[in-house]
Specification:
- The chain is of the alpha+beta class.
- The protein has two domains: 83 residues, Orthogonal Bundle (Arc Repressor Mutant, subunit A); 124 residues, MukE-like family, C-terminal domain (Arc Repressor Mutant, subunit A, Orthogonal Bundle), CATH 1.10.10.2260.
- Helix content is 56%, strand content 13%.
- The chain contains eleven helices and six strands.
- Strand 2 and strand 3 form a beta hairpin.
- The chain is elongated and about 65 Å long.
- 24% of the residues are buried.
- It comes from Christiangramia sediminicola.
- It holds the Pfam family MksE.
- This is Chromosome partition protein MukE.
Length: 227
């Protein structure tokens, strides 16, 4: 009887899975969250599902994956994401959510975070390639960016050198869009690099606060690894 009661309790806790409004969007939501996505109100249907079933979904991910559904608000915008519980790494493979950002992704993340705060009062915070280029050539950390991206600091760089950086930027922006930190848009004057930095980029700040606070040390360590 004890086992029957226990099973019945578990079944009842998952009754929300049978609701039509839940079933309609849960598959998409599950994919986004488990790959490390951050969801805010511009993704209306998934955000609404999270808002309505926050406690139920937190129970679902805690029970099945040992992950916590987290909710944060930055600049009056709320976003959701999955996080590890304590020191746990969750019940996922090392190649899934446990994968850390590469050095190049970390560099771009720090750059975008700086640009986010520079545009603090702008809504939306739209970025095109020329903005990134100015950040690299004239920004606060210009010397470090040049050293990392071009291996040496100079006044100018060739078209092919910029081409390699642009290729890396495009790849990183696509990855950041999957994580919900940016949203790409079409712009006739900016080539293929045009996107909006979203409030959820704040999550990057929390994850990489040590690299951000000690950026010069991060750069020097990275250079030593490449030598």
């Amino acid at each position: 009887m004890e086992n029957e009661n226990h099973i019945g309790t578990i079944d009842n806790s998952y009754k929300y899975l049978q609701k039509e409004e839940f079933q309609r969007h849960f598959a998409d939501l599950n994919i986004e969250l488990l790959r490390g996505g951050h969801i805010q109100d511009d993704n209306y249907y998934l955000f609404d599902l999270l808002r309505k079933f926050t406690s139920e979904l937190n129970h679902y991910y805690t029970s099945l994956y040992n992950l916590e559904l987290s909710k944060e608000t930055k600049d009056n915008i709320t976003f959701y994401y999955l996080d590890f519980i304590g020191e746990s790494k969750g019940k996922l493979s090392p190649t899934a959510r446990n994968k850390e950002l590469s050095e190049n992704q970390t560099i771009v993340g720090i750059m975008l975070l700086s640009m986010y705060y520079d545009r603090y009062f702008e809504k939306p915070k739209n970025i095109v390639f020329e903005d990134i280029k100015r950040e690299i050539t004239d920004g606060e950390h210009s010397s470090l960016y040049k050293t990392l991206l071009f291996k040496e600091e100079r006044d100018s760089y060739s078209e092919s050198e910029w081409g390699r950086v642009i290729k890396m930027l495009k790849s990183t922006i696509r990855d950041f869009e999957k994580m919900g930190w940016v949203k790409r848009f079409n712009s006739e004057n900016s080539g293929e690099i045009a996107f909006t930095i979203k409030e959820s980029i704040y999550r990057f700040q929390k994850l990489y606060e040590n690299e951000i606070a000690n950026f010069e040390t991060f750069v020097n360590d990275y250079r030593k690894q490449k030598e």
